[in-house]
Amino acid sequence: MSLPPGFLDELRNRASLSQVAGRKVMWDSRKSNQGKGDMWAPCPFHQEKSASFHVDDRKGFYYCFGCHAKGDVLTFIRETENVGFMEAVEILAREVGMEMPARDPRAQQKADRRSELAEVMEDAVRFFRRNLSTGNGQDAREYLARRGLSDKALDRWEIGFAPDGWQGLFDHLTGKGVPEDRIIDAGLARASTKGKRPYDVFRNRIMFPIRDARGRCIAFGGRAMDPNDNAKYLNSPETLLFDKGQSLFNHGPAREAAGKGQPLIVAEGYMDVIALAEAGFTAAVAPLGTAVTEGQLQMMWRMAPEPIIALDGDKAGLNAARRLIDLSLPLLEAGQSLRFAIMPEGQDPDDLIRAKGPGAVQEVLDTAMPMVRLLWQRETEGREYDSPERKAALDKALREKIKTIRDPSIRLHYGEEIKALRQELFNPRRGGQGGSGFRPRGGFAKPPATARLTTRASMLVAAGDGVETRNRIAVILAALIGTPRVAERFERGLEMMDCTDPDHRAIRDIILRRYHDETCDMRGEIVAEIGPHALENLFALRHVAINPAVRQPGDEEVAGMTLAEELAKLDAQRGWSAEIAEAVEDLAHGEDEALTWRLSQAAQARNTAMRSEHEDRAEYDTAENGARINRDERNALNALLDRIGHSKRQH
After folding, report:
1. Which EC number(s) does the record attach to this protein (predicted)?
2. Which pLDDT belongs to residue 645?
3. Does the N-terminal or the C-terminal CB of the chain have fewer CB atoms within 10 Å?
4. Spatial strand order in the sheet of 265-266
5. What is the 3-state secondary structure (H, E, C) of 187-236?
6. Residue 349 maps to which CATH number?
């Protein structure tokens, strides 16, 4: 359905986000200022006691400083009510008294058809449930009892049974007046190719309803009772209701549980999810008979930033986990990744729970490995590295995988982790395995505490990775403390700043929480929350003290120009720091072909930025410290280029 221009703007203007959110949260009266639309509460999206969920009614946005959930009033309705965008629009329109525009006739027809199919699916759920309790379902009931499912669990999951007949469900539905085409379109029956009556898709199977996030039954999964059946598990065909690659089993309940702090666990099948949920791991989901798709992965990340992939402890389970790496690497973001919990060999989560109880599963989850470790295991397990050529092949394969990561900061950290693991493998004196393959089936040894000496000694990397970034962040924070009102224009950039210094991170969060309060004493607020040392250390820095925005507090124009420039340079720095780090690693591996060009380009870009910054600071004759840092960084680049030239002359 298309909405007329301006409809959404008017809808958002009429709505009060604090009123809508107020139905889901309890406002903190001490921190909130209702008159200014500045409201604080414990977050509805994750379990917490402090009030870190902030609503700014004037701007119509919310942000949680704990789980980083953010959005506008429509996003809030979608996330808390488990509805789609248009449904959220309809809910809000009814609340504020706006009439929804007339639907496009074709869109209306499609929506009506979905509603009709959903009704047929609910009829099928009831049919299958009744059949489980009849004599026909005796074997199915006994099987489910052996799997440890109680009568209450059967009711909770609405498990049913499809009788062993060609038209059992079809006859039941047509007897209720449901048209044949509707039964076929719902994926419950297939048309005969021999001119006979349509026949049931599911026969002699235990039936698991698959519901979407809103709770509508959109499909079924059927487990065959006949051991000779060609397909042990069978899902509904794709329909107007069901898109297999965009659906998850137990989506709605798992989403709610994950929002309350439960870890999101991704298992392989229905029985694994049911066993996990019945054992207390209620935020469990499963893909539907296929490898995890990008759409399903994005759905998982909307529920939790770091889902745990809990796959079977067999070759197929491990291969599925390894395939997921290639899908996930390009999509990684800061704080958004996967962890992998591989079950004991030959067992799935259901087996482990029945054999040893929930505690055994918790132990496996507690030792879930980060994705970088599984990537390393995939590329090294069972291989010998007894020659330079084999080592070079490993380096090349890993670099190719790491280059698929789009985020330069994550790419840099992956490179550092891989270097540590590589050093451990190839250096026996540090506990590695020398020329033997790395076989971490029983778990990973702790990687060395420090990275390669050549890399750590590189002043270029040290500066790019820490000093310069911290210097820029210090200037930004000091400028904001003196002129907090400009924070509104740069809120997104401030949220994205990678504050490795805990004091910087705490100051940044206080500023983001309090900048809109014109009566707030920002310095006093910071001192009250984290003590006076943070401000003392910040303003004692020479490059901070000489900055115009710090020397002229309250000047919004100067502060705005400073923030715009420093944030832009931070953004650029993330890119060329990653490029330089890759070049340094190539140098360490002896790959100097095309490296001179890459590093010289990085050097040129960096030096251009440094010249620009030096010129900007030239009018302040006290900027000696900043200029010295820039000279040292250029010298480090030039030293690296000299090393390349020296290496070539030797060969």
Report:
1. 2.7.7.101
2. 54
3. C
4. 284-285, 265-266, 308-313, 339-345, 369-370
5. CCEECCCCCCCCEECCCCEEEEEEECCCCCEEEEEEEECCCCCCCCEEEC
6. 3.40.1360.10
pLDDT reading at 119 higher than 70: yes
Q: How confident is the model at residue 578 (pLDDT cuts 50, 70, 90)?
A: low
Euclidean distance between CA atoms 287 and 249, whole angstroms: 6
Residue 66 pLDDT exceeds 70: yes
Number of domains present in the structure of the chain? 5
Report in angstroms the alpha-carbon separations of 532 from 134, 207, 507, 541: 73, 63, 11, 15
Q: Are residues 187 and 307 in the same domain?
A: no
First to last CA, the chain: 68
* Residue at a domain's end among 367, 397, 421: 367
Quote the domain boundaries for residue 61.
7-96
Q: Within this chain, do residues 527 and 618 fall inside the same structural domain, yes or no? A: yes
Tell me the two tokens of residue 330: 């390009």
497 touches 476 (CB < 8 A): yes
Alpha helices, H only, 291-330: 294-303, 315-328
Cα distances from 196 to residues 165, 178, 190, 343, in angstroms, run 15, 18, 11, 47
Give pTM, 2 decimals.
Answer: 0.59
State which of 61, 96, 131 marks the end of a domain.
96
Q: How deeply is 651 buried, as exposed, middle or buried, from its count of CB atoms within 10 A (0-12, 13-18, 19+)?
A: exposed
d(CA 560, CA 554): 11
- Whether residue 485 sits in one domain with residue 580: yes
Q: Note whether residue 101 is domain-resident.
A: no
